[in-house]
Design goal:
The chain has 269 residues and is of the alpha+beta class. It has 2 domains: 181 residues, no CATH class; 73 residues, Alpha-Beta Plaits, CATH 3.30.70.120. The chain contains 10 helices and 4 strands. Helix 2 packs parallel to helix 7 and helix 3 runs antiparallel to helix 4. The chain starts with a helix and ends in a 10-residue tail after the last strand.
Length: 269
């Protein structure tokens, strides 16, 4: 229930930031929501409806390709954000575009940071990037940056380059706040020693969007066979992983260490 309420609250905060700070000054957000804002400004269609329609195909694909808990919370976020964009009136709090882009970006970052802390996402480019990195060994950060660059460029051509620069300010502020709130950039290596290796692997793969490496082990004292599972996760996933491990094997030995650097594909193994 805590996670559901956190996702709903975060999505409502994002909707308020869009309609009160960004949209009135033709400032776009990052991701697919930025495209929805742009289309909502140049067409008579409501931004909330556009945000839902643009995300819908990705959510359907994500149900089959990504973790069930992750995509479930993402669907809740997209629906809540779309409804808030539809219900909250578009009204400029400030007449200054630069101030609006800065404060709009910060408030958006707070909302999205809360969503990430609840192990969900706001949909859009996050889903696209995760689906692509699951198939190809592309760096997730570079993909998100490239797609956000497209949003900034479109803003410049469709509106004006002042709006594009303000969009860049908003996206930068959002990213900084998100990093502060949810510490997604901190990676942890989890090593699990258990007698229920196959059951543990199945449980983790069904609920955790990460690759897992399995090794055979043997108890030094008992001589009994063990399975050793190793995976790398982000810090905000740690609570979920510990709960999943305890659910399968409360007696499992678990070693968790902070990881300095990850090379290769972080999302599959």
């Amino acid at each position: 229930m805590y996670r559901l309420l956190t996702v709903i609250m975060g999505s409502l905060i994002v909707g308020v930031a869009y309609n009160l700070f960004l949209i009135p000054h033709q400032i776009l957000s990052s991701g697919l929501s930025g495209i929805a804002i742009m289309l909502g400004i140049i067409t008579p269609i409501n931004t909330g409806l556009l945000n839902f329609l643009l995300n819908l195909p990705l959510l359907v694909i994500g149900v089959f390709k990504l973790g069930k808990r992750f995509i479930g919370l993402t669907i809740l976020s997209v629906v809540t954000l779309s409804i808030s964009l539809y219900l909250v009136p578009v009204h400029a709090i400030s007449s200054e575009p630069i101030l609006s882009s800065l404060f709009g970006g910060v408030i958006t970052g707070i909302g999205i940071g809360l969503i990430f802390r609840a192990s969900g996402s706001s949909g859009g480019f996050d889903i696209i990037a995760m689906l692509l990195t699951k198939q190809k060994d592309f760096p997730l950060g570079a993909l998100l940056s490239a797609m956000n660059a497209v949003v900034v460029t479109l803003s410049g051509f469709i509106f004006n380059w002042d709006a594009a620069l303000n969009t860049l300010v908003a996206i930068y502020a959002t990213g900084k706040v998100i990093d502060t709130i949810h510490t997604n950039h901190i990676k942890l290596t989890v090593m699990i020693v258990t007698q229920k290796g196959d059951e543990m692997k199945t449980k983790l793969l069904a609920n955790l969007y990460r690759g897992i490496t399995l090794m055979d082990g043997q108890g030094g004292y008992s001589g009994e066979g063990r399975k050793i599972l190793m995976t790398v996760i982000t810090r905000y996933q740690l609570h979920d992983v510990k709960a999943l491990i305890n659910e399968v094997d409360p007696q499992a030995f678990v070693n968790i260490t902070e990881t300095t650097e990850v090379m290769g594909s972080f999302h599959r193994a």
